Amino acid sequence: MSVRVSPWQTLVCLLEAVGKVIGLLQPLYLAWFVDGAVRSNTPQMVLAVSAFTASIGLNWILQMAGTTARVNQMERVGFAFDKEIARITASIPTLDHLESPRYLDRLQILRDQQTALGGAFNMFVNTFNSLLTVAGTILLALTADARLLLLVLAGLPTLVVTRWISRWQAAAEKSSAEPGRLASHLLALGTSPTAGAELRVFGIRRTTRARLADAVTAWRQPAVLLAIRTNALQGACATFFFLTAAAVLAWMVSDALVRAVPVSALVLAVMLAGRLQNAGQSVQWAIASFTRIARITGQFLWLNDYDQQVRAAGSGVKAPPARFENGILLEHLTFSYPDADTPAVRDVNLHLPAGAVVALVGENGAGKTTLVKLLTGMYRPTSGQILLDDTDLAALDIDAWRASTAGAFQDHAKLELRVQETVGVGDLPRVHDPAAVHDALRGAASEDVLQVLPQGLDTQLGSSWTGGVDLSGGQWQRLAIARGMMRSQPLLLVLDEPTAALDAITEHRLFER
């Protein structure tokens, strides 16, 4: 992804690794300086100081260039991943996934870890630099004194506990997903003007706050416990390493006192001891980072695979008819929502004649809205079929079919745009056509909504925007109906509870038209 986003920026990031290699040699230059001082070798001391100074300058320049490129690239890659996640989620042709707890939990994990995918390139470069530093540090340590190998071995427990920490991280992410969704929902309720009225009338603000606090606690508690357990293990590993380092350095000091070890080797060992500790932590960080990235990438790939599976299941290519001859026939149509115990629609057989107006009447929960969404291809039948002039809806290009339909839905969207766009998006090619919008408003008996708006079609809707105007529930529904009237000759026009929020006079006017 990084190379695809910006190849040159990716190459510049590698300069940081070159700077790391140059910086690795600094302890060696210092050891040369000490050795020259002990032997009163002035040329060696001058050469060591020059090399040390040059390495500091080059290291700083290269790391600044590489780090700047890496941070910029991280933002670009993160944006590319966020854009791809949004595209996949929005382009899935059906609505089933938005009512599946399993899907929503996985999406919540991606949201909670949304910086991880963008930071994947950053972590990769950091890991590469860290492993390069580790290899160089170990090589320098072995050239200084073989006993420093004991410090390398003392860092191995850190690698062992990394596997445990990775498993704990995965469990924490999974257990926090559902509470995280609940916390987001309760927060949205508390900050919504619509819900705010009910919270105050029924006196449940305190109860809602308490539930929000509990949800946030349940959401963040796994991460807190993970941090405690992780810090305890890492602290134990660090203590073991420093005890080992103290013993090894004491051993080398005793040898240096009897001149069995050169002073330069002792100086190099002291400087490398801390670096070896950092090396162990770097390897642990690298493993943990790759594990985390692999886990989050797995969620992303699952999302992408889900999109492909849904598309493959309904990959019809036929064009819808130009006009109906016989109409729409439902044969033994059954549909169940994800994880539901009983079907929402069971064994429905129905003929909708071409050119006819058909009213579906039933109790709440009888499945009328579900049937509307099945007809528009928002859901796919669990069993049975929908025939359009003897052609199965599943065989049609779903986007082409939807372009041939229009309607207003019970759970209509409140699009906080200009009125022109709020209505006009019902037919995108004519979204900026004022005449078409006026015709749609007339067809929906909603022209008088414009009379109370300060700027007519140019009025910004939504009080949360500067200069925006809020509407009543009935006014929002009337604009939604007008949006459904934008397509002048649809093959199928559906009106799902179109007058639920309208007063009796407006309802009568709408049905008269």
Automatic annotation (TrEMBL):
Domain ABC transporter: 328-513
GO molecular function: ABC-type transporter activity; ATP binding; ATP hydrolysis activity; ATPase-coupled lipid transmembrane transporter activity
Record key words, sorted: ATP-binding, Membrane, Nucleotide-binding, Transmembrane, Transmembrane helix
Topology versus the membrane: Multi-pass membrane protein
InterPro entries, sorted: AAA+_ATPase, ABC1_TM_dom, ABC1_TM_sf, ABC_transporter-like_ATP-bd, ABC_transporter-like_CS, P-loop_NTPase, Type_1_exporter
Cellular-component GO terms for this entry: plasma membrane
Boundaries of every ABC transmembrane type-1 domain copy: 11-292
PROSITE patterns, alphabetized: ABC_TM1F (PS50929), ABC_TRANSPORTER_1 (PS00211), ABC_TRANSPORTER_2 (PS50893)
CDD domains: ABCC_MRP_Like (cd03228)
Subcellular location: Cell membrane
Signal peptide: none
Entry's transmembrane regions: 12-32, 44-62, 116-142, 148-166, 232-251
Protein name (database record): ATP-binding cassette subfamily B protein
UniProt source species: Actinopolymorpha pittospori
